[in-house]
Write a structure and sequence with these properties.
By secondary structure, the protein is an alpha/beta fold. The chain is built from 10 helices and 10 strands. The protein has a 7-stranded mixed β-sheet with strand order 1-2-3-4-5-7-10, sandwiched between helices. It has a 3-stranded mixed β-sheet with strand order 6-8-9.
């Protein structure tokens, strides 16, 4: 079942929800309307969905912010625009289910900020990454200054913005921009494989990874350890977790590496 919005195509296939950026004539550049649609989709996750795949139609994942949104805007309007992006990106990062991004072609500026809000990134070999804001006299505004240093380090992000440096797919993998690199024809199969595997996990474990782990990382040592204990206790108390543990102990579950 597919839902076609003005800038997105949303399709439910079993336990996986596929969300496509659908502005190929603009290299999937994101305007305010697209941000509103993204926020709406991730605010109303179907109960059947256990994982989301986010990708771009056409030759590119996302070429970033549609710069026409910034024309003649005041400082206050610019800040409100940025905060709208923050709200949508938080809906992705703290989604009720994990989000896998399939990257190809341009993943630059706001597109890279969008990708960084996802939990797993699969890059096809055509993917390239950049933060051209530094060359255009502007700054990131979609949460990139918070998320990207955690992926690649502050120094690398600073270099990308100061110099306009472009990372190709394999270079991006090496520095942490993606967890997987595949041939250009293999991305869809890889994300489908990962999404089906993720969708088969216990829901509480997936929720803990998308919503609790990031806050543990940001919360400091003592707070993080307490949150870990609480998340672990809640997860293992779920009936599904108890069944999975029993299956493992009684030899009905695969061991790691089998």
């Amino acid at each position: 079942m597919s839902t076609i919005l003005k800038n997105l195509i949303v399709e439910q296939k079993g336990k996986v929800l596929y969300v496509a950026l659908n502005r190929p004539e603009k290299r999937n550049a994101v305007n305010t309307e697209t941000i509103s649609e993204i926020e709406a989709v991730f605010s109303n996750m179907p109960k059947e969905a256990k994982c989301v795949v986010l990708y771009g139609n056409g030759k590119h994942f996302c070429a970033g912010l549609d710069l026409s949104d910034l024309q003649e805007s005041s400082a206050i309007e610019g800040m409100l625009h940025s905060r709208k992006w923050h709200g949508a990106m938080d809906k992705i990062q703290f989604s009720s289910v994990p989000v896998v991004a399939l990257l190809h072609g341009a993943c630059v500026g706001g597109g890279l900020e969008l990708a960084s809000a996802c939990h797993i990134r699969v890059a096809e070999e055509s993917t390239f990454y950049a933060l051209p804001e530094g060359q255009r006299g502007i700054f990131v505004g979609g949460g990139g200054s918070v998320r990207l240093p955690k992926l690649i380090g502050t120094a690398r992000m600073t270099d990308m913005m100061l110099t306009g440096r472009v990372y190709k797919a394999n270079e991006g993998y090496q520095v942490g921009l993606s967890q997987y690199v595949v041939n250009d024809s293999e991305g869809r199969a890889k994300v489908e494989e990962l999404a089906e595997k993720i969708a088969g996990n216990a829901p509480m474990t997936n929720f803990a990874l998308t919503n609790i782990l990031p806050r543990i990382v940001d919360g400091g040592h003592d707070v993080g350890l307490m949150m870990e204990s609480m998340a672990g206790a809640i997860a293992q108390d779920a009936p599904e977790a108890k069944k999975r543990l029993k299956d493992f102990l009684e030899g009905r579950a695969k061991k790691v590496g089998e």
